[in-house]
């Protein structure tokens, strides 16, 4: 045991020590180093090997001397000595810094583990701060903006209606306009195609979203088409009942206004007036339609009160619309129709999602800050007779459009000036308007074609 302390200093000259006891060294230590060799300390036994050299000469030494060459055969020991040499070199690595490096790789995988992928999922959460810059609560904003998705699908509408762009200088009156005409085919307006298009929108116009979703879910679950046909039949029956009970033929105009608001303005219907008109327990007065739209620029909810008229004479239609608006405002009534319509809106809002419905209704609560972010606009649709369709037969579609648009543009300008004058004369210039114009060769022809499509040729 005392032999070990001196070994430390000799550990470094490990290379020379094999030089002196060349023959003896392998003899004694050969057995012992075998175990130590794998461990770095093998170098230390190398020193003790020198003192055991005294006992080594004992009898066995003579034999090993001869076999020394053969023990060389057990060169495994010599290799052990060589490993001892390499061991010395690994001894430098023995700090096992290599092991530390594997640990480093482990640390690198660890780095990937928190990799930013995890941070990216967190990004959606960070997106929530995209709350309105003006301070509106995110849930309310999300719900209001969701109204955009409530508008129906109007693929093909722009193929049926073409638009003429006109910049309306309303002289201080808050009024804008959208001006459309029927697409031409072979020099003729495509009235039949337009009637078919509006007919296919009677379901969303007449049936509540909740009922439509229920029928669609049943259809998806059963693949039974009768649920879809039930919606069509009910919508047709509601339309027929409303027309006959009210002795009016204005409903095609209300349907067209519904399509213009949803299809072009992306302002979905908030109350289905047609559905309520056929409910004997719900007295319905007020406007023809109620739609909403989210105005991102103004950070406000736009409420559209809709009025529609189908008249042969445009000027008479404008007068009738303003008459209806004055009655709706009911300044001389104990309880104006506008207030009743707000009650209807609270009780019969055509929104199936309760959260969205509650968020939207905040804008109609006079004690909510959201009510200050509501803007009201009167959407006025006029369908009227226009005699400039004559003389287009035989022209190419492009020539027919060019000629017609030139004539229509002139009528748009005069109609806008006429409307502004009527608004001022009635003292309604504090209101905001959007005017939709759509000329027909004959509005009575439009009615008859639509009622026939409904299966009501006797209407």
Q: Overview of this structure, please?
A:
This protein is globular. It has a seven-stranded mixed sheet with strand order 1-2-9-8-7-6-5, sandwiched between helices. Mean pLDDT is 74; it is low at 1-140. α10 crosses α20 and α18 (314-329) packs across α21 (397-425). It folds into two domains: 7-100, no CATH class; 138-454, no CATH class. The chain is built from 22 helices and nine strands. With 459 residues, the protein is of the alpha/beta class.
| Biggest sheet overview | 7 strands, mixed
N→C terminal distance: 123 Å
Overall tally of structural domains: 2
What portion of residues belong to β-strands?
Answer: 5-15%
Low-confidence stretches: 1-140
Tally of individual helices: 22
Side by side, the strands of the main sheet go: 1-2-9-8-7-6-5
* Rg from alpha-carbon coordinates: 46 Å
Residue share in helices?
Answer: 40-55%
| DSSP, total strands | 9
Q: Which structural class is indicated by helix and strand composition?
A: alpha/beta
Task: Using the alpha-carbon principal axes, give the shape.
Answer: globular
Average pLDDT taken over every residue: 74
């Amino acid at each position: 045991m005392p032999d070990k302390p001196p070994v430390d200093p000799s550990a470094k000259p490990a290379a020379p020590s094999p030089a002196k006891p060349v023959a003896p060294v392998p003899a004694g230590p050969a057995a012992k180093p075998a175990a130590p060799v794998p461990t770095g300390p093998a170098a230390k036994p190398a020193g003790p090997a020198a003192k055991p050299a005294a006992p080594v000469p004992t009898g066995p030494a003579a034999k090993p001397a001869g076999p020394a060459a053969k023990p060389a055969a057990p060169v495994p020991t010599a290799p052990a000595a060589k490993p001892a040499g390499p061991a010395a070199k690994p001894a430098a690595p023995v700090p096992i810094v290599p092991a530390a490096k594997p640990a480093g790789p482990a640390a690198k995988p660890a780095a990937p583990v928190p990799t930013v992928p995890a941070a990216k999922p967190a990004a959606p959460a960070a997106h929530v701060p995209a709350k309105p810059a003006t301070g509106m609560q995110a849930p309310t904003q999300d719900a209001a903006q969701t109204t955009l998705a409530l508008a129906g699908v109007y693929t093909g509408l722009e193929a049926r209606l073409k638009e003429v762009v006109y910049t309306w200088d309303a002289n201080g009156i808050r009024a804008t306009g959208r001006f459309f005409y029927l697409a031409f085919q072979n020099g003729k307006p495509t009235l039949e195609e337009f009637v078919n298009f509006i007919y296919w929108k009677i379901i969303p116009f007449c049936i509540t979203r909740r009922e439509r979703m229920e029928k669609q879910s049943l259809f998806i679950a059963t693949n039974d088409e009768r649920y879809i046909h039930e919606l069509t039949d009910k919508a047709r029956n509601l339309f027929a009942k409303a027309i006959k009970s009210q002795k009016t033929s204005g409903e095609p105009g209300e349907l067209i206004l519904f399509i213009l608001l949803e299809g072009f303005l992306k302002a979905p219907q908030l109350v289905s007036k047609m559905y309520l008109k056929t409910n004997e327990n719900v007295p319905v007065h007020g406007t023809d339609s109620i739609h909403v739209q989210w105005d991102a620029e103004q950070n406000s909810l736009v409420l559209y009160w809709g009025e529609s008229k189908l008249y042969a004479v445009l000027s008479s239609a404008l007068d009738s619309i303003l008459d209806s608006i004055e009655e709706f405002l009911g300044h001389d009534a104990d309880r104006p129709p506008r207030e009743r319509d707000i009650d209807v809106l609270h009780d019969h809002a055509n929104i199936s999602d309760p959260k969205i419905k509650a968020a939207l209704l905040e804008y109609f609560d006079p004690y909510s800050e959201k009510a200050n972010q509501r803007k009201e606009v009167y959407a006025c649709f006029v369908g009227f007779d226009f005699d400039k369709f004559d003389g287009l037969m035989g022209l190419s579609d492009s020539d027919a459009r060019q000629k017609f648009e030139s004539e229509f543009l002139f009528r748009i300008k005069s109609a806008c000036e006429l409307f502004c004058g009527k608004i001022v004369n009635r003292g309604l210039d504090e209101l905001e308007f959007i005017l939709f114009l759509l000329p027909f060769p004959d509005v009575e022809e439009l009615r008859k074609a639509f009622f026939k499509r409904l299966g009501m040729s006797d209407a």
